[in-house]
Amino acid sequence: MKFFIDTADVTEIREAQTLGLLDGVTTNPSLIAKTGRDFKEVIKEICQIVDGPISAEVLSTDYEGMIKEAAELKEIHENIVVKIPLIMPGLQATQWCTEQGIKTNVTLCFSALQALLAAKAGATYISPFVGRLDDIAHDGMDLIAQILEIYAQYDFKTEVLVASVRHPMHVLESARMGADVVTVPYKVLSQLAKHPLTDIGLAKFLADSKSIPK
Length: 214
Ligand code: E4P
Hints:
The chain has one domain (2-209): TIM Barrel. It is built from eleven helices and eight strands. It has helices spanning 10-18, 29-35, 39-49, 63-76, 88-100, 112-120, 130-135, 140-153, 168-177, 186-191, 196-209; strands at 2-6, 24-26, 54-57, 80-85, 104-109, 125-128, 159-162, 181-184. An eight-stranded parallel beta barrel has the order 1-2-3-4-5-6-7-8, surrounded by six helices. Helix 1 runs parallel beside helix 3 and helix 6 packs parallel to helix 8 (140-153). The longest helix has 14 residues, at 63-76. It starts with a strand and ends in a 5-residue tail after the last helix. The relative contact order is 0.13. The site of erythose-4-phosphate (E4P) has 11 residues, from helix 7.
């Protein structure tokens, strides 16, 4: 399973990159806004830090606007994946990108039928938002299971990118289900390696090591 980091904060991205576990980065307009920086400047900087797929989202909601933005975003760096919302013009734009050889991440997916349409449009990635479904008392991980089940029946190349991850259990369940990618906030990424028994065990080993004759 590939690990992407879900942030536009270059300090976090640099720190995560030092772990050597990072396969890519996802951003969205809210994450970019949080940085208070220019959109293209941030995306360019992220591309210098991580050598992998970097998702950058279009802001247009009409087909013409989306494909214009997609072409511009693609010019920023060869690793750019154009993030497109799952609305009808977005599916058309995804199809256009597929024909042009531009990679896409179809975002804001909340149903398996939406995911089916994205795959038919040739999306490189589909981003189901599990945390936002959990927030409204729907089972986000059940959506992942449904999408994986549907994709397994056909020859779709679209990768399932689990998004809106809130905690390590989302990551564990994604891995158990065989999701292709999980994109995690820095906080969740740093929680993954933690276990209290590891800390207790290490403290004991270090304490005991003091009585080893030198
Ligand atoms: C991923 O591509 C999305 O931008 C992100 O995971 C959304 O997460 P949120 O629901 O925590 O905002």
